[in-house]
Amino acid sequence: MIPPDHSGSQHEFAVQADEWFHVAPYEPGLHLVAEPGHVFSWLIAGSERTVLLDTGLGIADVAAAVAPAATSPVVVVNSHVHFDHVGGNALFADTEMHELGPEWVAAGCRAEYLRDYRKLAAGMRVSWERLREADRDGWFMLGPDETVRPWPEARLQELGWRISPPEPTRLLREGEEIDLGDRVLRVIHTPGHAPDHICLVDEPAGILFAQDQAYYGPHLICERGSDLGEFARSTRRLASELRGAIRVVYAAHCLRPALPPRFLDELADAAEGVAAGEIALTPAKGMFGEPVQGADFGHFSILVSDEARA
């Protein structure tokens, strides 16, 4: 589905970039690159390079979407290589990921993931419309960042949908720095949701880019390679090491892209309780309806497979 020349010009996407992506300035040097309801990516500007943190689902041209906002050459950094974060990688000449990432790139995206996600996504707009109707009854919490686009299923059936990111041009390690010129991002390896998951921290700006490590919503510790103990340790590490050092957490999912730093402690407490067996788990369903065990904490939950618990 993605052309090998990184240009996007030879490929017909399922939907136009400006009809699918919501690209908006969030603060100086930072743009939200949203596929609302699906995944949030981030465009982090520096004087010499700009990082695009994750490239989304690959059903629209993310390179075209971010081009008007980019003020320096764009390099992709992947938080991890799950399909909804690497779909547009091949549109860019330079891509970076954790050193464990290529193993998962080589394994490939399972066809059943895309099949099941299409079924899930087709119903998301309907569910969101019910939410919007309730929201207009005096709440008005949903804005353009939270506006779920119609899913282009007919065009996907016509064109097909596959995700096949190229090998990265640079491998990242724990503690490594990504120099953007007048901005430096530090890599924090946070396994648990995925073995290769990383967060980026911009300490002078007080920002943690957490992606799938922390957000309001269901935390999927039930994917291939997930590990509950690692997730608990990674979350506690972020909460402890960054306490007082950050002012905001930017995330990848569930309509709310920005979180307060205090959420890291809430999530760490919950993950440790689940990992230690102190918080009861009950039967639940994973993202595609598969049977898992879950613990609900109100504004977030933790979903765990037997493999991840082991």
Secondary-structure topology with pairs:
Layout: H1 17-20, E1 22-27, E2 30-35, E3 39-45, E4 50-53, H2 62-66, E5 74-77, H3 83-86, E6 95-98, H4 101-107, H5 111-135, H6 153-159, E7 170-172, E8 177-179, E9 184-189, E10 198-202, E11 207-211, E12 218-221, H7 228-241, E13 248-251, E14 258-259, H8 262-275, E15 282-285, E16 291-296, E17 301-304, H9 306-309
Parallel strand pairs: 4-5, 5-6, 6-7, 11-13, 12-17
Antiparallel strand pairs: 1-2, 2-3, 3-4, 8-9, 9-10, 10-11, 13-14, 15-16, 16-17
Helix pairs in contact: 7-8
Number of domains: 2
Task: Kindly state the percentage of residues in helix.
Answer: 25-40%
Spatial order of strands in the largest sheet: 1-2-3-4-5-6-7
Shape: globular
Biggest sheet overview: 7 strands, mixed
Overall pLDDT level: 94
SS element count, helices:
9
Secondary-structure class = alpha/beta
Give the C-alpha Rg.
18 Å
Order of helices and strands: HEEEEHEHEHHHEEEEEEHEEHEEEH
Number of strands: 17
Quote the beta fraction.
Answer: 15-25%
State the end-to-end distance. Answer: 37 Å
Descriptive report:
The protein is α/β, with parallel strands linked by helices. It has two domains: 163 residues, no CATH class; 86 residues, no CATH class. It has a seven-stranded mixed β-sheet. The radius of gyration is 18 Å and the shape is globular.
